[in-house]
Write a structure and sequence with these properties.
The chain has 10 helices and 4 strands. By secondary structure, the chain is an alpha+beta fold. The protein is globular and about 70 Å long. Helix content is about 55%, strand content about 10%. The longest helix has about 35 residues. A 4-stranded mixed β-sheet has the order 1-3-2-4, sandwiched between helices. It has a domain of about 170 residues. Helix 7 runs parallel beside helix 9.
Length: about 325
């Protein structure tokens, strides 16, 4: 949006003329059973994440030094975990996130809607905290939208932990320029530093991704070193409530293939750093594998619906 061209007089807010008792908003067609299911699902996501994260934190803190902790150290770790959890919930979520309201809607997309609305009026400083929260929650989607608005056609994504080879960026960009309608997917070349469980476990996701795309040619579904065409990716993300965490890379590749974006695979080395080298893994086996399983279940349902179209496309391409 061009804030400069819309920085004039702000139109009168419809809330100024709203009745004292606004009509109650109800989800169309949402019965008590549907609402109960949504509530249960929301509770499972929120409290499942809150409940498992401290367990990983506690385990890592106890084993970080390689020595058996004493009672004082255990009490300190428990106290730190407890108060960090309380402050995040009470201050961050209850005090800040839940106060961001877009006509009764909440969440990351509501935060971004508030950002875009205020960008149109030129009033950025007043909502700087909302911008910050929205960017943290959906940085990739926000960045893609802004890049598209600024006229960029493609975007390169890579991890910031040093696992992906920065020296191969020119080669990836050149491949994208040669085939602008395609997406360039890195194909990881593992060395001895790669955990065996990671290398073998990703084969499951790769198999499902190839089935869901009818073997269009996605050699690796999880490697995040890629070049995407921005316009179709933003169009996909705008229609999805997911694709915001560890499930992004797989779902982006599959759904872009569904839209006819051809994958180009380029081998690229990947390095896993040890703890003493500063390596930190944010992958959580239970949480993220559950997220991937739910994602593949959704994608499989979409694949069944699109199977005639995908089969026809494969037959025409030979």
């Amino acid at each position: 949006m061009d804030a400069a061209s819309k920085a004039g007089s702000e139109p009168q807010s419809p809330k100024n003329s709203a009745p004292d008792h606004p009509p109650e908003h109800k989800a169309e067609g949402a019965g008590p059973h549907a609402q109960s299911f949504l509530a249960l699902t929301a509770l499972g996501v929120v409290f499942g994440d809150i409940g498992t994260s401290p367990l990983y934190t506690f385990s890592t803190a106890l084993t970080a030094t390689g020595q058996a902790p004493g009672p004082t150290q255990v009490l300190g770790i428990v106290s730190l975990t407890f108060w960090a959890l309380m402050l995040i919930i009470s201050v961050k979520y209850v005090g800040l996130v839940l106060r961001a309201d877009n006509d009764g809607e909440g969440g990351i997309l509501a935060l971004l809607s508030l950002v875009e609305h205020r960008d149109a009026t030129g009033q950025r400083a007043k909502f700087s905290i909302v911008i910050l929260l929205g960017v943290i929650g959906a940085a990739l989607l926000y960045g893609m939208r802004r890049a598209l608005h600024e006229g960029f056609s493609h975007a390169l994504t890579m991890d910031s932990d040093g696992q992906h080879p920065g020296e191969m960026i020119p080669a990836f960009m050149a491949a994208s320029q040669a085939a602008p309608g395609s997406m360039v997917l890195g194909e990881p070349q593992f060395d001895a530093s790669a955990p065996s469980l990671r290398v073998k476990g990703r084969r499951i996701s790769n198999w499902w991704a190839n089935l869901e795309t009818l073997w269009t040619g996605v050699h690796d579904s999880l490697y995040g070193f890629r070049v995407y065409p921005i316009a179709p990716l933003v169009a996909i993300m705008n229609r999805q409530l997911w694709m915001r965490r560890f499930d992004f890379d797989v779902e982006a590749a599959v759904r872009l293939c569904w839209r006819g974006v051809r994958p180009i695979n380029m081998p690229a080395p990947v390095r896993y750093f040890r703890v003493d080298e500063g390596g930190v893994s944010h992958f959580r086996y239970v949480r993220d594998n559950a997220l991937l399983s739910w994602m593949h279940l959704r994608l499989l349902a979409g694949f069944v619906l699109r199977l005639p179209l995908l089969a026809s496309r494969r037959w025409r391409s030979g």
